[in-house]
Structures
1.
Amino acid sequence: MKHRIRFIMVGGFLGAGKTTTLARLARHYVQRGLNVGVVTNDQASDLVDTNALRSQGFDVGEVAGSCFCCNFNGLMGTIEGLGQERRPDVILAEPVGSCTDLVATVVQPLKRLFEAEFNIAPYAVILKPSHGSRILRNESNAGFSPKAAYILKKQLEEADAILINRIDELGPREVEELVRLVEEHYPGRPILKVSARAGTGFEALLELLEQEGDFGRRVLDIDYDIYAEGEAELGWLNSSVRVCAPREFEMDVLLTNVVGRLAQLLDGLGAETAHLKAIGLWEGFFGVANLIGRDHVPELSLASSVKVPECDLIVNARVATDPASLEGAVRSAVEAACIDAGGTADFRQTQCFRPARPTPTHRFAAID
Ligand SMILES: Nc1nc2c(ncn2[C@@H]2O[C@H](COP(=O)(O)OP(=O)(O)O)[C@@H](O)[C@H]2O)c(=O)[nH]1
Ligand SMILES: [Mg+2]
């Protein structure tokens, strides 16, 4: 008889730490001898996350072009594709960071329509402290706009457990305040204090995810107009670029330069950044640079430490601005960073848009 696949989805807003968490989980389960498949998701192709996870050696399938909830069949097909050679023991799924209502549109359909196939883990949602604390304190001008803040609140509301991430950067007082705010707004959910990067709290996360039970029961009462308008306030860009230079350049310097220059240009336009990511790929080597918001500086999250004559560069940007300004800023930043590296940029493909209104494949509004 076929075994049931453990389905673990980890949610959270853009830049919360989902990919970092999933990579750590994937490493752990692989080390334990399990067959692990990771499913990434985006509104467009050329995903930094997919490339970063594949480069780390994981088996990754991608649902590109629309989110899990609006392309439930794409999610199922991608999982099937991952299991062609050997049925996975665990599927780790990363939804789009601006998506919510995933319990009604993904977890419940999986439970009801595919009960024989999947065994569903608790749905954990990650909170990015700099972003979350402003919203939960009800500060004005927090979280891009009231409608985008609504999405973050709904994401946390439907969680079985909430992970306060990046505690490596926080003092005890800040952690305490966040715990209090989360408890106040979302009573009854386990709260884990973690650092996805450093691994703090990872044992507790594993324990949480191993629990058996009837999870994914917090179906939201949600206004799809506000949700859709909140998502559409973000400009969304995925670009793939070929970079060539007559002399070798440091790939990591190029990546941080692209993200740094882009952040500066966007700041100049008064456009608030949700998440900027860039990956450089050359002959099996890879590096990733990130920026996750106005309180943060660009950082090299995964270093390649190589000098290269050329590389593939993928840029993903989610920014509260119109797509045309975003695309212009990305082109200028990439071109300038390539000139700094002594090379040139050849833009291969760019998709730039505002996310369309979500129309879920399934939506189970009530629990059995
Ligand atoms: N300092 C710190 N950085 C983190 C932590 N978790 C994630 N990051 C960084 O935050 C950025 C966004 O993380 P990512 O996992 O891509 O977020 P996602 O958009 O939710 O998938 C990356 O630069 C990560 O290296 C953490 O616990 N501490
Ligand atoms: Mg991610």
2.
Amino acid sequence: MTATTSNPNSRAALPDYAPVPPSAQGPALNEVRGGGGGDLPRIAVILGSTRPGRLGEHVAFWVMDQARHRTDAEFELVDLVDYPLPHLDEPLPPNMGAYQNAHTQEWAAVIGRFDGFVFVTPEYNHSISGVLKNAIDYVYAEWNNKAMGVVSYGAAGGARAAEHLRLIAGELQMADVRTNVALSLFTDFRDFSELAPAAYQTQALETMLGQVIAWSQALAPLRQVTQAA
Ligand SMILES: Cc1cc2nc3c(=O)[nH]c(=O)nc-3n(C[C@H](O)[C@H](O)[C@H](O)COP(=O)(O)O)c2cc1C
């Protein structure tokens, strides 16, 4: 599936902002590789809002910018704007693993490539965004036995969305790590628009990334058993 560069919500069409600008010499923001090489865990940072003017892009860029300093994993940005899935239209439940639509098979291939996930989610009506829930619901086995962490944002740090997401993760046989980065619209953004996270949030993100990486590695034997079955 290709990036929808003609989509008005796409990154290319957005104003030129980046709260923590990537280094001009650094790797592309959507693919930050750890420096260790070899079989490093592959972690997707899933950008879970697609609204025009979304704050989620600032947050996901901040996560990716922090991730670039790590040498113990490979990180890739998966922006749901680039995967415009319709409302779930598979005839069979995803846990049967009989995906019939091309868009589902492509999405399954994307998610299947990763060992762990960092979900960047807004809080909408005390839960995650609909577009993120839909994208999660589409597939099943591709999430199983993988680690996940949450970076949420909202008036109360998106905490209610984060807790909902952890419940969803349990049903998908994902291991949710303890640390949740919860960005407050009041104190971690200037004028509710420019991301300016408190120092402890950066520390929390570092801790959470470490936990996701560690658990992604620890669960690898389970994933091998599942693949062999
Ligand atoms: C449909 C909708 C529902 C929202 N509900 C909540 C909410 O329950 N709690 C909250 O803290 N913020 C809520 N907000 C505010 C969002 O957290 C805020 O607008 C945030 O910027 C949304 O993320 P986004 O800009 O990446 O889409 C809501 C926003 C929208 C659009």
